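Sharing a chain and its predicted structure for anyone who wants a worked example. Both blocks are below, sequence first, tokens second.
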Amino acid sequence: MTDFNSTNFQPATFQLSWFPGLGAANHWISIPFCVFYVTAMVGNCTVLCIIWKDRRLHQPMYLFLCMLSINDLGVSLSTLPTVLSTFCFDVTDVAFDACLAQMFFIHSFSNMGSGILLAMSFDRFVAICDPLRYAAILTNPRIVRIGLAIVIRSFGVVLPLPILIKRLPFCHAQALSHAYCLHSDVMRLACADITVNNIYGLCAVLIVFGIDLLLIVISYILIMMTIFSLASGGRRLKALNTCVSHVCAVLIFYIPMITVSIIHRYGENSPPLVHVLLSSVYLFVPPVINPIVYSIKTKEIRKSILKMFSR
């Protein structure tokens, strides 16, 4: 039985779950997720090691890529403990405070991912639209300040979420829809008015993801205008090629995220399996795909990887 705090009615634990109706197949389902984790860890660590060792890659574009790889590792490590315990060891209980901590880190790294993608779009904008001032604008101290601003903004926006959950009473069955804790999933279990949580969650999404995506779209409109003003077709192709990896990363990140937000708020009648699959794609696919895309499309990283394996 679930224990409750006598004053705040906070549960001692939440019950983790995943893929409704497929409980008997959990051990088999764990195999692809273990592959995802290993691929994400190896891929992002490889990118970080290559950029760290090769001083020629200590440039703004690759420093932002390092930030993205570190963030992808953070996303993976945030979900790893509860996902593996649920699938591999059938441990489905997670302590209330541990759940809030995991929720904080998952949402913080998601917000940081959005900010890093915006910074990378600014990098591409300066490189293509004002190449002569590229080195003067994106100096190392300025890149550090951008990184700190992304971290501070993310933590500042996400910090109220666990505080808002803490004030809610929980007096029903505490079964979550996922093998990890998300704000939208935890708050629906409360037996009190969650209007404040809903409004703040929506505002946080619009302030962070909405503004970031709008600025990324604007930057690419300006980039496209600059590219198509170039007289040489070869220069156009070269400029476009430098943006392909970042565009892929933006699409991989934002399409699942927007779909998850819409389904959570307006898809109450959709099957539970849809919620689980979309959330899984949102959290597990970008850390796996990003290093692969950048390794394939970035010549310097691709050459370093081939040199490493040839040795």
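Comments welcome. The chain has one domain: 13-310.
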